[in-house]
Design brief:
Methane Monooxygenase Hydroxylase, Chain G, domain 1; Beta Polymerase, domain 2; membrane (chains A, B, C, D, E); rod-shaped; seven-stranded mixed beta sheet; homopentamer; magnesium (chains A, B, C, D, E)
């Protein structure tokens, strides 16, 4: 997530409403998927061309879902926007892939933007893509930076005629799309949770500077993740409060459930962040502890042997008149004296619980 | 509480309303307890089969409490749900045992979910079970992951005909169930409080890396516990504010009391967390302090004996022309000089309050 | 304050409304003090028996204040409660001496609970008693865990016929009681403030592990104190907002004053807590500083004498062919060389500002 | 600011409304300044006696400002209060010089209390005086603990007949008084800001324990200052919201400006506090850094010379059968060996970037 | 940003409404740029004199934008203010270049003040200029401390007749001006983000006291930046809520977009601040880690060689009766004994994972 803001400046100085793709080009060619469905039928068309949409006939009993994978062909987005009457500033937001999650109500449609998140364990980073959804009267437009499995699964569920998703309106489909994204966060959090456990074990059993590095990186990702997820709560609450009539009452109960999930996700990130902070503090204490142990070993050795070496040094002096050197028992006497000193020292350290 | 999120991903990609038990299977067979009661009578039926409920006749003057222990037989839950008209998304929440505590009002019933907590001192962890309660017009459904003592005690109190619990409606019974759960938190907090006191004593008297480890683990549990308990306040406040008429005015005063308890519980967890943070800081200061003591001992020994050893080393040199070596009083003079140096050093350390 | 929660579990599993004294028995026998007063008269009766109250005649022009010292005789409390129509759940709160400060409005009376605080400097702990006050139409009931000076002083003020307290209603008396408790907090805070100053001086002049211990203990007490005092603000605000008519408009101005005091008390505790946190940080820096000083002394000594000792060691070797040993000026040359080295070292340390 | 709470307890146990001066006696004799003014005239009377006020005639077209310097003559305050119909509890607040800043609306007047602040750089402390202002229909009473320049300057501005202050009502004068106090905070903050810069430079260039001490003291003052200034915002907002009509609409725009200033002052204190916290953290890291440097020097010296000294020690042993001692080239061989070892060690330290 | 408050005191003691330029003189001569425009025409006049404005004719179908670069000629600002009916206190705010961002609604115009920010990487500081905008019925006045590129670009965009900016009212121009300032923040944040990345790399690969210094400085700038940007959100929200009719409904959608940007900017600053805090903590742990490594090297060397040196010292003693010295195999025996001791020590360190 290092480059989170790195392209924001690309647009500086441009008049608002200028359509420029801010973000990486993730796919070669944008792909358009048109799904027309109602309780009885389901038709799927895939194309790289906008022409298949131009001949589209709107009908009361047909719901339309158009999904775009790949955002760098701005003309495609612009044409789509004109066709469905989307305000240029919304199109600008769709193309600028650094949006905070948000819900905006317009006269004829609701614009929701949200992020999918991917945790890359090897690099300890969380990457994210922007998903934009426009919910109209009888249609949904969805925009992804690249094709993901998330929406494909929804499409597979739609193929079953008995599915609730076919019977209900496009508001329920919108809910399903957002729900699949939020559900995916749990996978992410589970992965991160496992990494935290692994790091905690490592911290206790064999801490190394790399452990410190990993904890720090993961905590930094949590700070950035929190920034990305914090607005999620308000995004879904805004959908719930929507008064345009585009969201039917029967969908409310599902949005409430989604709201609970979003809070749970945010709280988990917050908890992880606090746990990682605690682990960083623990690391510092542990290092201090081990330094203390090292110091004790050094001190014990030095405190025992430095005085003894001094005594040996005295009897190594070459003075002519040193009566002790002539004594027959001088050598054993000094040896016994030194041994006694060492024992007293060891007893002293024992009492100080350094041993 | 390590695996708090570990099964959340099981449901990813499923359509909403899919009934899957998310959590561990805690009992072999689910157990159904049916309690029919009013001021005069009390009948208890226990079964593993839903049939005993199918013949149930609803009567104005009879209140019904159905308790389910064990959630892994989803068909049982589904049948119960259909019988009492519970929305599938509520049943999904009952089976997904990772809910945050919450109160949700529906047209005909109120859904409350809350967690029971158990502190396992040996492992310094707090485990939790999810309890779900559905309060209807004249009935209560309660769902536990496994049988606990909490609800059994309520049932025993109900057997006394004079008890207030028999005379009042199912809203009072709901209160009693939640109250018994919240009361149980006090036991948990008391256990944790004792552990904190024990750790504080240990920290002051004989701190070891294990003490640090324990404080850290307990603090981590407090972070997770806070996340579990924080929504409790809102859960009970929502019950108080309920306008469906299912909660009678006479129960309000009890819910207010419960609300006070919930705040007290949350504040205690917060206080514990802050106290444990303080203890971690204290540990670091204590380790630094002790390292300082170790350093002082080393420095005193080294500072006294290293110069003395040097002097002894000088007179151990084998130069032919060293006049001092020939002096008769050379040896005692050097000894006195060295003793004087040592005394000066000790005086210097005394003045620096290192001794 | 260590045992703050230690008896909370005593009530677990009891039906609500069960009257059990949760707390220590602080007095041998409970004492009942009945004060009947109006502008003209004041009668005081003291008894250990409830009988003196049973014959009590209520009269429009007489105000009644009943104070109970000692809470362990639950029957006494129960009889009193029945006589004045107090709800059992309120009586339960009176007996459970671990309440948070709060104001609860009932139909005929207002229930206020608040804590008196005592700082025991020797043990660095803050102890607290629970005071409960029931303000009715023309009467006050007050409950203390043991007799204190606080209420006695109020009674003495009431004996002066000219006193405002005699002329005004029981709402003013309620204010006076709470005011005397809050005023007492200032004494507590002043004591703690002096202790903080003393510790700060100690920290700067002669820090010891005991200083650290004391700061930590005081900070812990501040955390617990904050928990006790935080609800005080809301308690008094609730009294101010009361709409039952039991609090007359003329008392409002006094409650506003009390409210200001309560905020001042809370802010002072918060300030103390932050100051103590700052002192803990300072302690750690100070210890590191002093360790740095110790290390410098060790390093200077070792860096000067270890190389010199090595040189002395070289000329102490017993090789047969060491020409220097034979030189006439060998010894003084080596001595001058060593002195030069020492001077260079000292200059280096000087430049590094270690000296 | 050490004695901030030290006299609060003086009033404990007194009935409310008792007029006692809580604070230091800062002037010998209280001084009364009476200013009568309107657009055309300005009369100033100074006296130590209240008599000059007693003959005061109120007139629609004359505005009156009475300023009192020195609060220890309670009778003077009391007489003034009675004359202008001020509630005893307000007089009590005026005399109790430990108030938080606040605005209180009464029927006929508004009571504002606010603090002037003085930074004493030598002691690193912030002292404060309490200013009380009573704004009535056509009069202002102001009370200071001692005479300051602030109000004198306002009086000088009033002497210019063209000044807006003469034309407008007493509400504008009130604004002017408060504005002059808040403006003075900027001076204080500028002084503290300069001290912070000085300390930061000292921290980077030549940190000493005294630097640590100063940063700590300044941070403590910021904690206390924040407590004093935090209520300022609400104080001025209350004035803005006032609905008594004493504050005219034309003054609103000035109060809004004052409100902005008060927020700016509070934010600056908060910023200073955070900057000082950052500096304390930096100090700890810097000390650790320098200890690390010291340790490296010690380790390099010890690691090079201890093994060499050992080798010299070996050839200083007096065994009769040590063949090396007899070799002609033994001595130079050992010297070369030792030099090689030293070079290898130095290379190793170079590689570890310790040199 | 060091001198942020340094001139605030210049105005102390002045009556409100006194026009004094508080800030540095950034340009030699103030420059006036008058832009008259509508959908069809655009006229630009540049002058240092106010006369060109005096002959200005207001017409319904012409919009006027007057930009002033350089604020130290107070008479110019005053004349402009009088001409357009701006309240003196607003002019005072325009000249006092230390304002917090804010929006103030007056009867006939809206006053917005906001800051441009420039990051100077070499000094690790963020400098800022104050921009004031007055939006009237058909005119805009804008005031800058010095000429910047930001507004010049807007003027260039206005020269294109097809541009939306020409067709819409002055409210849209106001939005465009603020938008160009906020867009510029992204450039600033990107620069700071890159510096943070660079510092993080440096921290991991080759931390030095200068790294610490840089992180600290950048964090301090973030604290100050947060103070400057925090009110931005409210500033734009106030514009959105404006009810004067000066802001047309069609501009609302653009302001909403601007509001999102402002939140994103604030959150990024907050995230940076937290990341820098994390890096400071990491630095401390890293230093401790490295000190630990240094200590281990010292301890290993000392623990191996000090006892060996002691043994060598023993056989260097000059006692006459030391039988070992006479043994033929004494020397090799001692050497083998010492080697064995060294090996045992090394094995012990290996087991302790110090090697």
């Amino acid at each position: 997530m290092r480059d989170y803001n790195s392209e924001l400046s690309k647009k500086t100085g441009m008049p608002p409403g200028t359509l420029i793709h801010v973000g990486d080009k993730r796919v070669e060619e944008p792909k358009l998927t048109l799904v027309e469905y109602n309780g009885d039928n389901l038709e799927v068309h895939v194309s790289q061309d906008i022409d298949i949409i131009k001949d589209l006939e709107f009908a009361e009993d047909r719901k339309i879902w158009i999904n775009v994978d790949g955002l760098h062909q701005t003309e495609l987005i612009e044409s789509l926007g004109k066709l469905f009457g989307v305000h240029p500033i919304v199109l600008e937001d769709i193309l600028n892939t650094n949006q905070r999650p948000k819900t905006e109500s317009y006269e004829d449609y609701i614009y929701v933007t949200i992020r999918t998140l991917f945790y890359e364990r090897l690099e300890n980073t969380v990457n994210s893509d922007q998903i934009s959804i426009i919910l109209g009267n009888n249609f949904i437009l969805s925009f992804q930076e690249m094709e993901t499995d998330l929406f494909k699964k929804i499409r597979q569920r739609m193929e079953r005629p008995a599915g609730i998703i076919r019977k209900r309106g496009v508001d329920y489909l919108t809910y399903s799309l957002i729900d699949s994204i939020v559900d995916n966060y749990y996978l992410l959090l589970e992965d991160i949770g496992e990494e935290i456990e692994r790091l905690e074990d490592e911290l206790i059993n064999e801490p190394s500077p790399a452990t410190l590095q990993n904890i720090h990186e993961l905590k930094r990702e949590m700070i950035i993740l929190r920034r990305s997820l914090w607005p999620l709560r308000e995004t879904i609450a805004s959908l719930q409060r929507d008064e345009s009539g585009l969201i039917k009452e029967s969908t409310d109960i599902y949005l409430r459930d989604l709201y609970d999930h979003s809070i749970q996700v945010i709280e988990t990130v917050e908890t992880y962040r606090e746990m990682l902070s605690g682990m960083l503090d623990l690391y510092l204490s542990t290092v201090s502890n081990r330094m203390n142990e090292v110091m004790k070993v050094l001190t014990i050795i030095a405190t025992i042997f430095i005085p003894l070496t001094f005594i040996a040094g005295i009897y190594g002096m070459n003075f002519e008149y040193m009566p002790e050197l002539k004594w027959e028992w001088g050598y054993p006497a000094v040896m016994i004296f030194m041994a006694t000193m060492a024992v007293i020292m060891l007893y002293y350290f024992k009492k100080k619980t350094w041993l």
